Amino acid sequence: MSDNATAAVGRRPLAALAEGRGKPAAIALLAAVAVLYPVAFPNQANVDSLANAAIYAALALGLNIVVGFTGLLDLGYAAFFAIGAYAYGILNSFQLHPAWGPFWVPLQHLGLVMPFPGNSGGTVVHFTLSFWIALPLAAVISAGCGMAFGAPTLRLRGDYLAIVTLGFGEIVPIVFRNWSSLTNGAAGLNGVGAPVLLGHSFGVNAIPYYYVAIALVAFLIFASLRLRDSRIGRAWMAIREDEIAAGAMGVNRTRFKLLAFATGAAFAGATGVVFIAKLQTATPDMFDFPVSVMILVMIVFGGIGSVWGAVAGAMILQLLQSWWLPDLSGLVDGLGRLLGSRWLASVDLTQSTELIFGIILVVMMLYRRQGLIPAHRPQAALSFEAQHAVVQRGFGELRLSGLAGDVAAGTPALQVRGVTVAFGGLKALDAVSIDVPSGGVVAVIGPNGSGKSTLFNVITGLVPANGGSIRFRGEEILGLHDHQILARGIARTFQNIRLFPTLTVLQNVLVGQHARLSTSLFGAVFRPPRTRREEQAALDWAREVIAIFGNRLAPRLGQAVGGLSYANRRRTEIARALASRPKLLLLDEPTAGMNPAETLELAEQIRGLKSLGLTVLLIEHKLDVVTQLADTVYVLDHGEIIAHGTPAEVRRNEDVLRAYLGRNAQAAAAGIAGGGDAT
Ligand code: ADP
Ligand code: MG
User: By the 8 A CB rule, do 61 and 267 touch?
Assistant: First the structure.
């Protein structure tokens, strides 16, 4: 999942070392086999099949970014493959032949066009764009189309997005089929130029194409792995796991979905160039809907979200079609002749690849849903020593940058004025005003359904307000997007814990830093020193924040949070919020579901944060926690603030008692300590 250093945390160092040593060796062996294969077996047909398999592996890697990493179901992926293919096909063939003129001369010097004698006399232009320029160019063109298509549609979710992409995948081949002047229609482009390297044309020899295809796959594997373990990949996976939490942690969802779409499209566009150059022709039916489905089947078979899985799935299914099925067909036919069965003797398995793919898919879903090479490794249980290791609490070293110091304690951090939120006829908040002073801890209490969580949602931009104003450090934040609000320094947790379940504790906390990091796509892939430093600092900071909870989380950095205990998931969520270096922390019932000892421990830790200068707004049912922590308490009832003051004042307030008594006499008797509600 993550780099070896992170995976190694909490495991025996020896085992991690062995893992780290084994991987490069396996990759080197794989590369050696790939490079030497055509030397050892220079059979054109076999090498050609392998080149095709590599081309599908490249396509699968691109789709894996969209579907596997980001969780956007794309059923029209082959359209981007087509766009890249046709871009090269049109710019290196005789398809377009405008009349020659002085305009073309500079382009001739660049080697992009040549004068050519036309059919009806006169000279025409022959496009001769180099294959090597076409590779990146087609990637850019396809990425551009991906952006143009994605911008209006990526707001759609799940099924709707799938249907729109399906439509797009249908439209592109239809356009190519009918725009004859540009594409020669159904008959397809002819005479697409072969690549030329150092003066030698690839011609129709399969071997050089094979090397180009595996070089492309190697680069795309490298890029995929680098992206996965970067700020970008983490943002993609966060979107896949929980869009709302991703937004609340500062991920600009629209932008990162578009980026995933464009990156996947770029992979497909470049691959299209290799595919067409090898065939030297392009017809629209090479890019029809079944191709998109086949690529999807390949990544499902290999393991959704798994880079090596996508490659293995694509190679195996493609070779199944071109190598093993014909052999198997021959075997079945021979058996048929032996048994005298005419039906068996005439079976042609290569005609039923779709049926066979379907069967494979069903079997995989039944018995191995995670695919051949799963994206997530099962976790070893913690050893006794790891669970009981003494970890220094990190308060001493923790410097929540900018928390203390830049604003005098006591000046207002957050001012909510007359905020109203209505859901249809229901006023969840009715002209609510609260003040949170810098460096203070303010608690919000109230019966279930009184609007406490809605107050957090409106402050963090999750629900729109119908009126009012929210100022944070003097700036109006009402109307900003959730990720913009996080960037300004407000981080939150959710009442019903919203973590990224298949990501590890460390990855979750790293996502929390998203807004504080700046690694770009380029930086993620090529990791210049700046990116390395940034990533190292992010790791250090994550570990520091996690150390606040002593040895609760520290030994579990490499574990997926989905498998943690309830209390540890709450702690991880708080750590993730703190990782964003907030100035104001919103905690929605942080101790819900914790036992008394854990509650006490957490209250202690929150007090520690306060002493560091962090401002906290807290929703809490347990009154002893409120009394211990809060300077000021606001009481919400039916969406209105019915009282506020110190904990002692509020507890004596008659309106408050009535609000609780009216709804829940027992809770009032127990000191306004209601049970946990669910939002
Ligand atoms: P609390 O956190 O105090 O228990 P909430 O803020 O979750 O209360 O809910 C306040 C009221 O608003 C409830 O009646 C709830 O049903 C309603 N509500 C909350 N969110 C929504 C929503 N997204 N759509 C419709 N009604 C909502
Ligand atoms: Mg609530």
Answer: yes
Contact 269, 37 (CB under 8 A): no
544 C-beta closer than 6 A to ligand 1: no
User: What's the CA angle centered on 89, arms 83 and 93, to 5 degrees?
Assistant: 155
> What tokens appear for 20 in the block?
């780290």
Whichever domain contains 629, its CATH number is 3.40.50.300
236 and 151 within one domain: yes
Per-residue model confidence as pLDDT tens digits over 650-666: 888 888 877 765 555 44
Atom 24 in ligand 1: residue holding the nearest Cα: 423
Share of the chain above pLDDT 90, in %: 51
> What residue type is assigned to position 578 of the chain?
L
Residue 401 structure tokens: 């940058």
pTM for this model (two decimals)? 0.89
Binding site membership of 452 for ligand 1 (Cβ less than 6 Å): yes
Residues 419 and 363 in one domain: no
What is the C-alpha to C-alpha distance for residues 541 and 537, in angstroms, rounded to an integer? 6
CA gap 384, 381 in Å, rounded: 9
C-beta separation of 515 from 486 below 8 A? yes
Ligand 1 neighbour 676 (Cβ under 6 A) = no
Distance 156 CA to ligand 2 centre (A): 27
411 CA to centre of ligand 2 in angstroms: 28
Residue 669: per-residue pLDDT: 52
Nearest to 237 by CA among 216, 269, 260, 212: 260
